[in-house]
Write a structure and sequence with these properties.
The structure is a single chain. With about 80 residues, the chain is an alpha+beta fold. It has one domain. It contains 2 helices and 3 strands. The chain has a 3-stranded antiparallel sheet with strand order 2-1-3, covered by helices on one side. A hairpin with a 5-residue loop joins strand 1 and strand 2.
Length: about 80
């Protein structure tokens, strides 16, 4: 497994990062789910049906619109 670093702006607009282990680069949606689980563990199973089929990345969209969390980069950790 490779290690990937997801860089994002948290709720306060401050840069933060989260490491993920995966064979391939995680998609924006996969990264958003990991961030949501990290920042909002109680909301991890939140129903995003309102965004289903209307958004390419419903979790990423929810994070941005509801919490101001924005993913800025995903790269492999050397």
């Amino acid at each position: 497994m490779k290690a990937w670093e997801v860089i994002f702006a948290d709720q306060k607009g401050e840069p933060a990062s989260l490491r993920l282990n995966a064979e391939q680069c995680p998609s924006e949606e996969d990264a958003a789910r990991a961030i949501r689980s990290h920042l909002f563990p109680v909301m991890d199973e939140l129903d995003l049906n309102d965004f289903q089929d209307r958004s390419r990345s419903p979790t990423a969209r929810w994070l941005k619109e509801q919490s101001g969390v924005v993913i800025t980069a995903i790269h492999e950790v050397p």
